[in-house]
Amino acid sequence: xxxxxxxxxxxxxxxxxxxxxxxxxxxxxxxxxxxxxxxxxxxxxxxxxxxxxxxxxxxxxxxxxxxxxxxxxxxxxxxxxxxxxxxxxxxxxxxxxxxxxxxxxxxxxxxxxxxxxxxxxxxxxxxxxxxxxxxxxxxxxxxxxxxxxxxxxxxxxxxxxxxxxxxxxxxxxxxxxxxxxxxxxxxxxxxxxxxxxxxxxxxxxxxxxxxxxxxxxxxxxxxxxxxxxxxxxxxxxxxxxxxxxxxxxxxx
Length: 252
Prior knowledge:
Residues 6-222 form the Thioesterase domain. This protein has 252 residues and is α/β, with parallel strands linked by helices. 38% of the residues lie in helices and 13% in strands.
């Protein structure tokens, strides 16, 4: 039997999609977690990094058209949230079925993004300082020259993507947006609340103890709330109150 909801999970800057693999054991059986691997990492290590946000979004949207699941949603943390937003807009322009919902974590709303925050992070020292500030990188990475070099390479490429993002006025998405944030993150609550203007449908904002990686630091508190939000899109709940989507799209 196919899963009731496929959750495509996009990683944060400097990380691979393996950060979501443990969710496959922690989330209910009606959710199928599909980590989205970006070019240049994991199983796509032999591929070149994309050099701009628009190019990466269109590349991922192209891949989404290959194998459609019936019901799906996007989850994105930090840069992944911005990519999920961009892909949803690309799909709308292509007149393709949209995800049932967008779940975004630790990411300022598109209208509150500051590309300059990433543009000056081009030295190893500045990247390492950022990693330590965010408190999401295991100490073993800093102690291993090989792991640290790989992490910095990914982070530098991803910050180039983030620095190339420019917010453009567009119609709000006709899908619900659910936002999550850490109370100790430098992303102010007002920047999370600004996601409300990006949707014509339902909106929610949940805050948790912790910083930028609250979803790891306080996973026991975060995952039940994520499940509660996703449960709104189980067929027995969603059908009748919302449209029943046609076949949609996935990343292979």
